[in-house]
C-alpha cells in the first residue's frame, strides 16, 4: 500500500513512465495495456492526471497484468472504489477490467494483442502530418476511428475514436512527421 507521504513521488513516477513510453513503437502487450489504461482514464482529464494513476493502479490491480485484471470480480471492483488515491470513476474502472478480458480474447485469437493492433498498419507506424506548433496534437484520425470500431466489435468499452487515436499515437502505431 502506498502511504500518503509517498504519493507525490509515485505520481511523478507514473507520469515519467508514461512519458517514456509515449510514441515509442511497442509490441509488448503489458505496455500496450498500460497505455490503454491511461487513455481510458484520460477522458475529461489531462494525460498527466491519468498517468499519475499508473503506480497506484499497478499496486491495487495486480501490477496491471492483463490476466489478473481480467480475473477481477465485483468485490475487487468495490475494493478499488473504496481505495484512497484510486480514481473513483466506476465507468472507467469497469472499462479497464472489461478491456483486459477483451485483450485476452484477442490474445487467444491472434497470439498477442500487439499482433492484432499492428496488423492495422502492416507492422509499420502510420505516418501522419505533424500539426503546426500552435495546433497541438490531432485528437482523431481515420485509423483511430477504424480501430475503435473494431475494438468495440471485440467487446472493448470506453474506446471511442479520440481515446483510440491517442492510444495508437502513444503506442507508436501512429507517428507524426
Task: Describe the protein in words.
This protein is mainly α and 177 residues long. It has a single domain, classed as Hypothetical protein, domain 2 (Endonuclease III, domain 1, Orthogonal Bundle), CATH 1.10.340.30. The protein contains ten helices and two strands, in the order ααααααααβααβ. Strands 1-2 form a two-stranded parallel sheet. Helix 2 runs antiparallel to helix 7 and helix 2 packs across helix 10. It is globular and about 45 Å long. The N terminus is likely disordered.
Major sheet: size, sense and barrel closure? 2 strands, parallel
Order of helices and strands: HHHHHHHHEHHE
CATH superfamily: Hypothetical protein, domain 2
Task: Return residue spans where pLDDT drops below 50 for at least 5 consecutive residues.
Answer: 1-11
Helix proportion: 55-70%
Over the alpha carbons, how many angstroms does the gyration radius reach?
Answer: 16 Å
Number of helical stretches of at least 4 residues: 10
**What would the CATH topology be?**
Endonuclease III, domain 1
What top-tier CATH class fits best? Mainly Alpha
CATH architecture: Orthogonal Bundle
The rough form would be described as: globular
Report the β-strand fraction as a percent range: under 5%
Tell me, rounded to a whole number, the average pLDDT: 89
Number of E strands: 2
Number of discrete domains? 1
Q: What order do the strands of the largest sheet run in, or round the barrel if closed? A: 1-2
Note the gap between the termini: 42 Å
Structural class: mainly alpha
Amino acid at each position: 500500500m502506498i502511504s500518503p507521504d509517498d504519493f507525490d513521488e509515485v505520481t511523478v513516477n507514473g507520469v515519467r513512465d508514461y512519458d517514456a513510453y509515449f510514441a515509442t513503437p511497442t509490441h509488448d502487450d503489458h505496455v500496450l495495456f498500460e497505455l490503454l489504461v491511461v487513455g481510458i482514464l484520460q477522458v475529461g482529464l489531462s494525460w498527466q492526471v491519468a498517468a499519475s494513476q499508473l503506480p497506484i493502479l499497478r499496486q491495487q490491480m495486480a501490477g496491471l497484468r492483463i490476466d489478473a485484471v481480467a480475473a477481477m470480480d465485483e468485490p475487487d471492483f468495490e475494493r478499488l472504489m473504496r481505495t484512497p488515491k484510486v480514481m473513483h470513476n466506476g465507468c472507467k474502472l469497469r472499462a479497464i477490467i472489461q478491456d483486459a478480458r477483451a485483450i485476452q480474447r484477442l490474445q487467444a485469437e491472434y497470439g498477442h494483442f500487439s499482433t492484432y493492433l499492428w496488423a492495422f498498419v502492416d507492422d509499420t507506424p502510420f505516418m501522419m502530418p505533424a500539426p503546426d506548433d500552435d495546433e497541438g496534437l490531432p485528437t482523431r484520425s481515420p485509423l483511430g476511428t477504424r480501430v475503435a470500431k473494431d475494438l468495440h466489435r471485440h467487446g472493448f468499452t470506453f474506446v471511442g475514436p479520440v481515446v483510440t487515436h491517442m492510444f495508437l499515437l502513444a503506442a507508436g502505431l501512429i507517428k507524426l512527421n
